[in-house]
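In response to reviewer comment 3 from the previous cycle, which asked for concrete evidence that the modeling workflow produces usable outputs, we include below a single protein chain processed end to end. The sequence was submitted unchanged, and the resulting structure tokens are shown without manual editing.
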Amino acid sequence: DSHLRFRICLRTFSAAESTAVLGVPDAYHLPAAPGSALLKADAGPPVRFAAARISSGPPHPPGKGQAGAGLPPAAAPGSDLEVLLGGLAGAGPPAHQVWLPPLAPEIALEPLLEPAGDWLQVPVGVVDRPVDQAQGRLVLDLSKGAGHLAVVGAPRSGKGTLLCTLVAALTATHQPDEVQLYAVDAGGGLLHRLRDLPHVGAVCGPRERERVRRLVRELRSLLVEREHQFRELAVDSMAGWHARRRGGAGLGGHGEVLLLIDNWGAVVRELPELEPEITELAALGLHYGVHVVLTANRWAEVRPGLRENLGGRLELRLNDPLESEVGRTAAAGLPDLPGRGLTQSGLQFQTALPGPPDAVLGRARSAPGGGVAPPLRLLPALVEETALTSAGDTSGGLASGLGESVPAPREGSRAGAGGPAGLPFAVEEHRLEVVGLDLFGGSPHLLVFGDAGCGKSSLLRLIARGMAARSPATAVEIVVVDPRRGLADLRSLPNLAGYASTTTAVAEAVDRLRYRLEQRMATNGDPAPEPVMAAWTGAGPGRPIHPVSNGHHPPTTPEGPFHLGVPEPRPGAPQPLGPRLLLLVDDYDLLPAAGGSPLLPLLDLFGLGRELGLHVVLARRVAGAARAGFEPVVQRLRELGGAGVVMRGDPGEGPIVGGQRAAVLPPGRGLYVCPPHGTTLVQVAYCPPAAAGRAASAGGGQIRRPGP
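The workflow returned the following structure tokens.
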């Protein structure tokens, strides 16, 4: 009773009742007219008033019954309450609505797009803030520390719809030259509906493993390029980067790039080797404008190394509230509605619906000049040998050789105008540029691992033909060890100094090589004597070899022994005496090893290959590579840290070259390990055998005169 400030008392039956309410008996003496009452506020005296009628009745005569209540003398017909409300309407601010209605289960995105957000700030739904007694837009700010986003929720909770809403909002508020999106849809397939948007460069399906791998590595290549360009241009942030792009600096075709992955758990199960690469993108990409947005069924599917780099997080309904990162109580209180979720601060939100694809496409902004997001560039399934002939002109020769399926190199790439160093042999995945094999200026040896049908024999044929086309026999001599005789067509090359396919012929060829290299070591820098130069074809220690001529004579040129493919001598660098010796060994695993490898006599000379002019290209199967790692020849070539190509094979064989494992790859595809430049995926050019009329008949062995 002591907390009551206002007291109203109508006519009572006794004075005691009036005194109990008002403290005075005045209410007992009120007239018997309905509505007569007294109002007592605080300690003041009671004030008499007449309550208004709720039901309709005859209108009050003008000037009567209303003036005492403080109302205008004239009033429209109606009840007393209607007259009072009519006088109070618009007299003050509306009352604050304490209890707002629940969030609607379906919310359209269109009304949330206005007003447009700032740079990389997009609305994706409506959030309820009960403490503030308000509901407003849920805006994701991708321009700051929350530039990466993780959306976690149970199946059928609306994760794919939220990604579509994010895409629709970005395309409606940004131009295609500002924001580009690339998606991996391993969920319900909703993202495929948006692949026609000008901002979307590619949408990969769950079974398109090669396209998914290529997409991730393309973004890694973009990241490396921007790291280099930031240093060259002294740019410290993406804001400065965009300012230079708007100023016409010509900094490539990408702006802010988003990698969207729907159903992260399925992607990791299908392509586990991509998890560390995407983790690296999340760790380094935000500073260079590369964003990662992924969805998962459970938080446990996202490893801590990746999760700690995902600053933005949204949680939809979970099957088990105990797994919630926001809170068990808040997660248990979520209704079972698609799109309903929790922010990091525990506020409930409802995802907006992006609308049908036609509506999303109609809202999407266009770039000046009709530009679109750069498409995903794929390595070609087949690279013809002729595509490498114009390696010096990367943008022209490569494009004409590979056809329209391979786009031109990205604007802003750092390809040199002079083409690749060494012998062009493949196309790399990052910039789709030609890769050179530099045996003479770089690593002197090459290991090639691949199972049957992978293209390793084609690679050896390509190297032999390329060396013969670029260098005369006075500069490069080629020795071929070919147990399967699949390289018999190389016997027509003018640079061929020896061809061996039998055990006896291989042993003879190795003896001659050993003898020749020992003579080079014995000269100690003096010009090679005539017996040394003739040792390959004449008699020497061991078995005499009778040369077999094929009618070809090596070309003579005024440029001397270091012509075309052979680099000029560097001042102070040791140079081999006489022509370089290129030993090509195919199917090394087929050579008899009961008494030791036939190449063992050359083992101690591998380390001096650059000084002596010895270069070994050895190919073998991946099967059994784990055991072959202890074989002396392969082990020695690995220890020297040379280059290698790892093609198709069983990844269970373990690391083969440079820590790289084999994988299930299409023919001609392989990992090119080139220390210290790293490892890249390449498509080796296909080099078919020569026509039957040009190839010599297969024989046990051939060693011929290198020419004058």
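The radius of gyration is 41 Å. We consider this sufficient to address the reviewer's concern, and the full set will be provided in the supplementary archive.
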